[in-house]
Design brief:
This protein is an alpha+beta fold and about 110 residues long. Helix content is about 30%, strand content about 15%.
C-alpha cells in the first residue's frame, strides 16, 4: 500500500515543506553554507545580506496584501463625501466611518 503524505507549497519560495515547518516561528536569517565534502555534511556561518532580507520582506508584504487585505474600489471620477452618502448608505447611519483610499499617480 502506498503512503500519501501532505506537503505545503511555500508561496514565498515555492518549496514543498512539511506542515510542521509552517507551524513554527522562524526569523529572517541569511547564512553562508559550505560543503564539508561528500558525505561529511555542511557548515553554516551567519552572513548579513541586507539586500536579500529587504527582498524577502517585500515579498512577504506583497503576499500579505494578496491574501489578506480587502480589495479596493477604484473610482475614476472625483467624488465628494456628500455624494458618497447616496452610494454607501452606511455612511448616512455612521458618518464617522473612514474610507480607505489608495491613490495611484497616472502619467
Amino acid at each position: 500500500m502506498k503512503v500519501k503524505m501532505v506537503r505545503v507549497r511555500c508561496p514565498l519560495c515555492g518549496m514543498l515543506v512539511w506542515p510542521s515547518q509552517v507551524q513554527g516561528q522562524h526569523s529572517i536569517d541569511t547564512m553562508i553554507m559550505t560543503s564539508l565534502g561528500r558525505g561529511r555534511g555542511f557548515k553554516f556561518m551567519d552572513y548579513l545580506d541586507t539586500d536579500l532580507i529587504s527582498l524577502v520582506k517585500a515579498k512577504i508584504k506583497s503576499l500579505y496584501e494578496r491574501f489578506f487585505e480587502s480589495p479596493s474600489i477604484q473610482l475614476t471620477v472625483p467624488v465628494s463625501p456628500a455624494l458618497l452618502v447616496n452610494v454607501i448608505p452606511a455612511l448616512r447611519l455612521f458618518p464617522s466611518i473612514s474610507l480607505k483610499t489608495k491613490v495611484k499617480m497616472v502619467e
